[in-house]
Structures are given as structure tokens and as C-alpha cells.
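pipeline: protein-struct stage 2 | run 1193 | Mismatch-specific DNA-glycosylase
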Amino acid sequence: MPRFTPAELEAARDRLVPDVAAEGLRVLFCGINPGLWTAATGHHFGRPGNRFWPVLHLSGFTPRQYHPSEQHELLGHGIGITNVVARATARADELTDEEYREGGRLLAEKVVRLRPAWLAVAGITAYRTAFGDRRAVIGPQESTIGTTRVWVLPNPSGLNAHWTAATMAEEFGRLREAAGA
């Protein structure tokens, strides 16, 4: 696992991390925005302690726990990764509401173009702000983007203490069953 100095992490600020995506995926997972560790490595959900990769496996989406550097292997499972906001920051609270709304608009365009069966947004607050839906709750949403159904998941960041890996895996598993994965 790489070790980064504070200066190296700061140098990753505002970097873009390319999507792992293709047309017709079963599920397109969507993070809030890349953290500095993710931007420094170029691997989604790359920070040690982020629970995305363990939860993806525990929920049955993948046959084993992948390392962030293996992110492109997800495509073979009908899974992709993108973000609401593309630019990297140290914390999600550095993003403005306008960035979230613009990110939501661009994400909707991407979803219409790629046509995944499900868009899974990992972060209730990010979803509410990006899509102007203050009443959204964790789980499937009534609204769609084109023909794509939407599911809001808990944020897998280690800072999200309200959800354990086990309870997150249950919610991810509900999505997996709905997606027929």
C-alpha cells in the first residue's frame, strides 16, 4: 500500500479520477467525489479504511474482496463506478451546493447515455443535494433517470459511524438482489 506525504496528497487536490464505466451495466455505483488518496492513486474508494471494497464483497456483488487497484475487474461483474462531483477534495464538505447540483445534472446525462439498470449513489446527503430531493431515504427511490432506477446507499467512508460494514452489506445486498446480480 502506498504511503503519501501531506504534500503529495495536497498535490492531488482537484484531480479527476476517470470513471470505471460502460454501457448497459447492472449497477453504476456513484461516490460523492474523489478524496485526495483516491486522486493520488487513481483508484476509486482508494483510501485505506474506506469500506466500499469489503462491503461490495460481503454483499455478494463480487466473489472476493478486490483491491482498489483492481477496479476495472468490476466491469466483468456488470458493475461500474463514477462520482457525483468529479474534482478531488480532502473532505466532501469542501464542495458547494452548486457543485452538487451541477454534478447531479452531469451525472444524469451520463446515466441516460450509459443506461445502467441501477444507479447506486453512496451518500444520502449528496443525493439529496445533487437531485433536489430532500425527502430521499436510504434504499430504492421512486424517481428514475431515463430508464435507470435509483438506489441510495450509505456512504462507505470510515467516517460514517452510523453504519457498520455488516449493516452496509445488508443494504448493498438488497440492491444486489433487486439488480439480479
